[in-house]
């Protein structure tokens, strides 16, 4: 199978599992109520459902939140989710709830604000290179 066909199959399955019919008009309505950018067209939704195109990751994130599925699984399938999950085990071991909460808030930001936050983090990383193991600061928050 090709990538667009596999994505369309996963999207249709997720829509059905969420209790909706996999129709472009439904996707347009549900997506646009959650998306803060320019509205998608019925043609765009039709293309996603019919093996013609794959939305950008920020749009996949909105679809995943609507359908209550993992964004990586929706985009790439379960095999990638499992490999991402393996590398993500460190997330739970080395971070605090506050850090995870901050990252979740970051993921909810619009694209331009995410870019700004990434630039700030990069600037701090360059200004304060890692010379020692950094432990989570439990006093932040």
Please tell me about this protein's structure.
This protein is an all-alpha fold and 141 residues long. The protein folds into 2 domains: 3-76, 434 Repressor (Amino-terminal Domain) (Orthogonal Bundle), CATH 1.10.260.40; 89-127. Helices cover 68% and strands 0% of the residues. The chain has 9 helices and no strands. α2 (24-34) crosses α3. The model has no long low-confidence stretch (mean pLDDT 83).
CATH class of the largest domain: Mainly Alpha
Q: Tell me what the CATH architecture of the largest domain is.
A: Orthogonal Bundle
Cα-based radius of gyration, to the nearest Å: 18 Å
In whole angstroms, the N-to-C terminal distance is 47 Å
Poorly predicted tracts of residues: none
Helix and strand content put the structural class at mainly alpha
The average pLDDT value, as a whole number, equals 83
**Biggest beta sheet summary:** none
Oligomer: single chain
CATH third-tier fold name of the largest domain: 434 Repressor (Amino-terminal Domain)
Fourth-tier CATH superfamily name of the largest domain:
lambda repressor-like DNA-binding domains
Protein name: Transcriptional regulator
